Amino acid sequence: MTGKYNLNKLFAAYAAGDRLALSRLITHIENYSDDYELLIEKLFGFLRNTPRIGITGPPGVGKSSLVTEIVQGFRVEEKIIGIIAIDPSSPFTGGALLGDRIRMNRISLDAGVYIRSLATRGSLGGLALATEDVADLMDGFGCDLIIIETVGVGQVELDIVKTADTTIVVLSPESGDSVQAMKAGLMEIGDIFVLNKCDRNGADRAFIEIETALTHRPSGEWKPPIVKTSVQSREGLENLHQAIVSHLEFLSSDGRIDNKHFDRRALKIRRLVESTILHKYWQEDKLAKLEELSRQNISTVSAAKLLIGDS
What is the pLDDT of residues 72-125, one digit of tens each? Predict the structure, then answer.
């Protein structure tokens, strides 16, 4: 617990550009400290709606290596970059296993890049529960671009489209056979599709499969490009950079990005209301009543109605 005075001191250091203060505030967010609400209130005046790029896709397609290349492309433009790497949780400590952060060691010492690994801690959709708030902290800290890389558990990671302004789906030649299975979910959320490791055998076939899968997607004003990349041969990296810039420019026209921000705020408000109500509801008396009803010979629907009627 920070305490009001210490939080004010810590937040002043954060506002002055202290990276250690940013790190400590992120820890408070992750741990949902007692001063969470005060921290969020203080942060509100610093938010600038920094663009957020989501990177998702199956495991093994080279997401972390690609993030490194994307970051270096924007660092040439002297952009300050924040990276949130969603890692699997340790089964022993609940903390992030830091795999993505290790794979990004080429940019980890860059003063213009801030990398933070977050543990999923059992959250669904490949995103940690604290991701939105951590992105806000990086926004208020002065980052020009925030990149969020999902855990890549092989599930359809739909949460990222609600969190990011631009969603990049990364696939590889090896993932070609699974494109059809992902078509109903992952193939519908991408603003940009990347066929990484395109110097490997089967790349042309995988490209055609991705292209075919996208024909089943409803048409819109933005047609998602498919960019072939290879970190090893440097192929397509500039094309990917330009695709990201083009999509952000597209969003900036006609207020599209503002609508994304409003939707994101509405979702966050809803989640806060729901979590607050649940926290207040499940007190000791309700938990005791729940245990009592679970031992009775009644349906779960009847038990739920009794609990709700008892509130």
Answer: 999 999 999 999 998 765 443 444 445 455 567 778 889 999 999 987 655 544
* Domains of the chain, CATH where assigned: 1-46 (no CATH), 47-254 (3.40.50.300), 264-309 (no CATH)
Rounded-to-integer distance, Cα 301 and Cα 167, Å? 39
Tokens of 311: 């509130």
Which residue pairs, CB below 8 angstroms and at least 24 apart, start in 222-226?
222/191, 222/247, 222/250, 224/190, 224/191, 224/192, 224/193, 225/192, 225/193, 226/193, 226/194, 226/195
DSSP 218: P
pLDDT score, position 188: 82
Tokens found for residue 198: 């395109």
> Backbone phi, then psi, for 44, in 5-degree steps?
-55, -40
User: Rounded distance, CA 36 to CA 54, Å?
Assistant: 25
Bridge partners of 78, per DSSP, are none
